Amino acid sequence: MDDEYLSYEEEEENEEVDYDYDDHYSEDVGQVITKEEAPTSQVITKEALVAAQKQVLVRVMELLSVKENQARTLLIYYQWDVDKLFCLFADQGKDRLFSCAGLTAFDPCLVSSTRMMVMNCCDICMEDDLPSDVMTRMECGHSFCNGCWKEHFIVRINEGESKRIKCMAHKCNAICDEDVVRRLVSPELAKKFERFLIESYVEDNRMVKWCPSTPHCGNAIRKIKDDDGEVECLCGLQFCFSCLSESHSPCSCLMWKLWTKKCADESETVNWITVNTKLCPKCTKPISKSEGCNLMTCKCGQHFCWLCGEATGVSHTWTTIDGHSCGRYKDDKVRQMERAKRDLDRYTHYHYRYKAHTDSLKLEDKLRKNVLEKAVLNSERKSEEVFTNYIWVTDGVNRLFRSRRILSYSYVFAYYMFGEELFKDEMSDKEREIKKNLFEDQQQQLECNVERLSKVLEEPFDEYEFMKAVDMRRQLNNLSALVDNICKQMYECIENELLGPIQFGNHNIAPYRSKGIEQATEFCADICKSSS
Amino acid sequence: MQASSRARLFKEYKEVQREKVADPDIQLVCDDTNIFKWTALIKGPSETPYEGGVFQLAFAVPEHYPLQPPQVRFLTKIFHPNVHFKTGEICLDILKNAWSPAWTLQSVCRAIIALMAHPEADSPLNCDSGNLLRSGDVRGFNSMARMYTRLAAMPKKG
Ligand SMILES: [Zn+2]
Ligand SMILES: [Zn+2]
Ligand SMILES: [Zn+2]
Ligand SMILES: [Zn+2]
């Protein structure tokens, strides 16, 4: 079956069980399973990193007929973008390509012929008459003694500059030959140097990123297709490849960033205090207003005016309002307060729903485990196909999970899509209202069917007799297909109706995948030859 | 590590003794007790407002010298776009990212003299003087620089 269920494979003891049924049922309910979908990402484990890098190096070495160290210097400079490298090579030629990256396309014969003529003195340590075997000449033609080269390498590697150690000569931009570096420094430092070189493949490469898990699982993910996709690492972490935070579609990265910040900082609480409380002008404790009257009395005995916050007293009572300024400011203040209150209400509305679904997700994680356990045990006790092949249960649980997530994030999306923070001038109020209604309809549909799905999954199917279980399977499959369809439509609506017309800002949304976030396949050196 | 920087500084020291006569504009002196501390006296280049002045520089040599550049600053007050008026800090590429271990303290002095003759008004540490030059007020700049040279860098007569 699909790789999506790999993790349950070991639980499926009777592997010979009719596969026809899965396919039959999958098609029956019209699930969008596009089998030809090629993987768009790979996991590169710590152990495979060298091989992954080598694969690219070999390509460049073969096509440009250069040595490995030259290929690496080129690739580091051009950020491991092989296509760009080849384009530049075709457009500008080898010499230009080389000199930009700090490589000399010198003919080695020329170098050795000039060698005879130079005296063996090192400009760095200022020693003269050095024996020629302690001198090393880089490809740029500059020659210094091994002792000085070595110290230069040590300082640069310890400074973390391994990837591009320049020649010591003034104004020479040549990059030192990595073989010379390896030869001259201590084995431990050579190891460190090596590690920096290898890590460059991840750190300087737009298409490869470290998995953001903490503690770090050691893996890197390579994207084969340049989309704004979300991906699942071997360690199980699902994340957004663009911003490296938890997967957040259908929110854009910016929306998600703003949202997490908003939820984290206290600004909204502070806002609430300013809207709902005033500081007593005498003891400065915050007081909240619980009645309609604007004449407030603090615990300390001080009376003051709610509207302007100023003390009322002998000459400033609520009835004799001598010198009281609140009348003048009232309109402004009230408007300001109303606005702040409206913003807060809006945020609370969306946050409440977002939070509710995130919480459900956590609860359903338990449900998922229970249901699967139940299904496994049940399949061992009974012989009917509907019990032994319980893929319909796992299907349903996974669908619930995925769509619940989408539902939860859709509230964050809506908060920004129809708020003023990002798209104030992108649409008229009327337009906004229409679009908001359209989206909320979809959201409601999704919400109601997700709840139905959740409810069906709670049924004690292990206690059911055959016909009842078959009925539940039918129900579940239908619901699942329905929810899948609603999600798909929601994404289409976001892409075409909502974000499509937006002029400013980059709001790419990770595409909807019916089968859930893609699990990156593990990179193996030989498999990859064919895919690249 | 320190041993090699020490050896190299010692070489430079010997070189300086020999070259003293060769370059009358630069007088490099090593601290008696610390080979990592040097001072230099340089003559203001001719046909500049610094002409006739003698400027003192202080060198602090790092432990990884010459793989890392020395820290140099003016001890004598100088009105120059690339020298911080208060601290004497110098903005010069070879003392930062364009440093190469092939440079010596002596050649750094030469580079500083060259900088005095050719200020870089676009990366000023002294904004007043940078602004004067950039606005094209060369006369204003020259007279200020000249005044400070007379005040700070010329031996008092009598
Ligand atoms: Zn040397
Ligand atoms: Zn060189
Ligand atoms: Zn991971
Ligand atoms: Zn993102």
TrEMBL record, chain A:
Residues covered by the RING-type domain: 118-330, 122-171
Check the record and name the Pfam families matching this protein: Ariadne, IBR, Rcat_RNF216, UBA_ARI1
Which pathway does UniProt place it in?
Protein modification; protein ubiquitination
Q: Which GO terms describe its molecular function?
A: ubiquitin protein ligase activity; zinc ion binding
What top-tier enzyme class does this entry carry?
transferase
Report the EC number(s), separated by commas if there are several.
Answer: 2.3.2.31
Highest taxon listed in the record's lineage? Eukaryota
What catalytic reaction does the record list?
Answer: [E2 ubiquitin-conjugating enzyme]-S-ubiquitinyl-L-cysteine + [acceptor protein]-L-lysine = [E2 ubiquitin-conjugating enzyme]-L-cysteine + [acceptor protein]-N(6)-ubiquitinyl-L-lysine
Task of the protein: Might act as an E3 ubiquitin-protein ligase, or as part of E3 complex, which accepts ubiquitin from specific E2 ubiquitin-conjugating enzymes and then transfers it to substrates.
Under what name is this protein listed?
Answer: RBR-type E3 ubiquitin transferase
Origin organism is Capsella rubella
TrEMBL record, chain B:
Question: What range(s) does the UBC core domain occupy?
Answer: 4-154
For this entry, list what GO says about its biological process. Answer: peroxisome organization
Q: In terms of domain of life, where is this protein from?
A: Eukaryota
List the Gene3D superfamilies.
Ubiquitin Conjugating Enzyme
GO MF, one annotated term: ATP binding
Q: Which residues form the active site?
A: 91 (glycyl thioester intermediate)
Q: Which InterPro entries match?
A: Ub_conjugating_enzyme (IPR050113), UBC (IPR000608), UBQ-conjugating_AS (IPR023313), UBQ-conjugating_enzyme/RWD (IPR016135)
What's the EC number here? 2.3.2.23
In the record, the note on similarity to other proteins reads:
Belongs to the ubiquitin-conjugating enzyme family.
Record PANTHER family: UBIQUITIN-CONJUGATING ENZYME E2 (PTHR24067)
- In Swiss-Prot or TrEMBL terms, this protein is called E2 ubiquitin-conjugating enzyme
Species source reads Capsella rubella
